[in-house]
């Protein structure tokens, strides 16, 4: 018996959607699930702006896409999920290969909370290769969720598509970094639109198969995704005065520092990419990035990867 399944049996984690803050929203969708089964801890309502009297549901972002992403899709998905989790959003995805697992991993790396929604019975972690990822999601305060009871019969051709309505239903915003024209991610987007959620798609080269789904969504009204701020500003609206303060915080002590900070505003970046796009010579770039790190403005993530602090 698996460690996760043993935990499930010991805690009897079986609920109706309306019995938990995080899943109550699923009571309002079409084809609402009768019961939910989960490992771990479902996110709880949070104090709003430190107010002890007002508790609100945490902002929730779904990141889904192709199982075989390009490097472009991987980077977009990771940067967005990382930035959202750092900001306090719960990242939801489907534990699948590719974009889904990258989104979960980014949220964990950011020290955030992520929820995986299975298309299989709760005692059947799929794919098996992501069993350890599922354990880590639970260990770090998140949850693995399914509407299918232990040992339940399921049909892959329909169960995963039915699962998609739960991913979108749990989320405030759905973002698709990469998807082919017949991707299951487009099914998630369709559910999201039906449920009144905001849908973003990442535009791509029209000749690339894995951009066709996203480009098609944009032509049908999805919002083009260009940088994490597009989504974060929607999830976490900032008053005009505070927004001005944030913009000022991205101003360095000289033009070189300001250029680097502006580049990092979009998320985690490789040093080579910053160097190329800012036009700084290597010696000057190294001097500026070192000073920004000393000043506590940026942080090194290893392998010449950088992020705002």
Characterise the protein shown here.
With 309 residues, the chain is an alpha/beta fold. The chain folds into two domains: 3-234, Rossmann fold, CATH 3.40.50; 239-308, Winged helix-like DNA-binding domain superfamily/Winged helix DNA-binding domain (Arc Repressor Mutant, subunit A, Orthogonal Bundle). The chain contains twelve helices and 14 strands. The strands form three sheets. Strands 1-2-8-7-6-5-9-10-11 form a nine-stranded mixed β-sheet, sandwiched between helices. The longest helix has 17 residues, at 71-87. It is globular, with a radius of gyration of 20 Å. The model has no long low-confidence stretch (mean pLDDT 89).
Describe this protein with a few key phrases.
single chain; 309 residues; Rossmann fold; 2 domains; nine-stranded mixed sheet; 17% strand
Rounded average pLDDT: 89
Principal-axes shape call: globular
Ends apart, CA distance between termini:
42 Å
The largest beta-sheet arranges its strands as 1-2-8-7-6-5-9-10-11
CATH topology name of the largest domain, in short, is Rossmann fold
Beta-strand content estimate: 15-25%
Low-confidence segments? none
What value does the Rg take, in angstroms?
20 Å
**How many structural units, i.e. domains?**
2
- Provide the CATH top-level class of the largest domain: Alpha Beta
Order of helices and strands: HEEEEEHEHEHEHEHEHEHHHEHHEE
* Fraction of residues in H or I helices: 40-55%
CATH architecture of the largest domain: 3-Layer(aba) Sandwich
